[in-house]
Design goal:
One of its GO terms (molecular function) is mannan synthase activity. By secondary structure, the chain is mainly alpha-helical. Helix content is 64%, strand content 1%. It has a two-stranded parallel sheet with strand order 1-2.
């Protein structure tokens, strides 16, 4: 799980953030090893708790004031990753839901900003938020986790190879290109990301609609925080490990796994027969029409 997170975060930092820094485009600020100018924070209006991604919110407002961010890749700092699947789910829900909710609350503010160019406004609204924070999560789950598996149940549906094989393979290789030592875990990374796609799409819809739980703050549980109970206020929830059945067995994941297993079994058992019968049926109809 640590290596899977490494692959995802390495792409996020070295591709998304470093590319945004080198082109002086916007990239979302992270609290990890980040340094701010006090004048930038004050000019942007200070910290705001209107979403669960207050660091990204501050970065957006500072960028609209004309401030630029620089990614320094040669500085190395230690950081701790979530060590359990439950903690990772809480973290990803907060990041995904918060970004979608921030788009809802700041879209008009971005469009009406006067200190930045029209091109940067379009980049922020379309590229950074709409495509990467909304469309990417919804398409990943609905197309690759629902439509493609369910298509085996409808023999008339034919999905081209570029949509099923070429594009997913290219995306996977681009994510893993900087981690050749972890290439052997690519199948596990794909399965893990498919599972997380369900949670990210749900979190995206919650953030866009500002449904229940959109502003719920759950601190990511980490084993190294021995003093977290003393340092954090009592009213902040911490994702502690629970002994209840709901926290030991993840029923949404298991239910979706059953759906995928049924689709795979159906395709393995009847796929060839249905394809052959459909071809004969189509040929017969064509002959009768002729």
């Amino acid at each position: 799980m640590t290596r899977i997170q490494r692959m995802t975060l390495d792409y996020h930092f070295k591709v998304e953030q470093e590319a945004g820094s080198s082109t002086y485009a916007f990239f979302g600020f992270n609290g990890t090893a980040g340094v701010w100018r006090m004048s930038a924070i004050k000019q942007a209006g200070g910290w705001n708790d209107r979403t669960t991604v207050e660091d990204m919110d501050l970065a957006v407002r500072a960028s609209l004031k004309g401030w630029k961010f620089v990614y320094v890749g040669d500085l190395k700092v230690k950081s701790e990753l979530p060590s359990s699947f439950g903690a990772y789910r809480h973290q990803q829900h907060r990041w995904t839901c918060g970004a979608a909710n921030l788009l809802r609350k700041s879209a008009l503010e971005i469009w009406m900003a006067k200190e930045v160019s029209l091109l940067k406004k379009i980049y922020l609204l379309y590229n950074f938020f709409f495509v990467r924070k909304v469309v990417a999560h919804i398409v990943t789950f609905t197309f690759y986790c629902v439509i493609i598996p369910a298509s085996v149940l409808v023999p008339e549906v034919r999905i081209p190879a570029w949509g099923v094989v070429y594009i997913p393979t290219t995306i996977t290789l681009l994510n893993a290109i900087r981690n050749f030592s972890c290439v052997y875990i690519l199948p596990f990374w794909i399965l893990f990301e498919n599972v997380m796609a369900m949670h990210r799409m749900r979190a995206t819809l919650i953030g866009l609609c500002e449904a229940g739980g959109a502003n719920e703050w759950v601190v990511t549980e980490k084993l190294g925080g021995a003093l977290k109970q003393k340092l954090l206020p009592e009213n902040i929830a911490i994702g502690n490990t629970s002994s209840t059945v709901g926290h030991r067995f993840y029923f949404p994941e298991l239910g979706f796994a059953v759906f995928l297993f049924i689709c795979a079994s159906f395709d393995l058992t009847y796929g060839g027969i249905i394809t052959t019968c459909t071809s004969i049926y189509n040929q017969l109809l064509f002959s009768l029409w002729a």
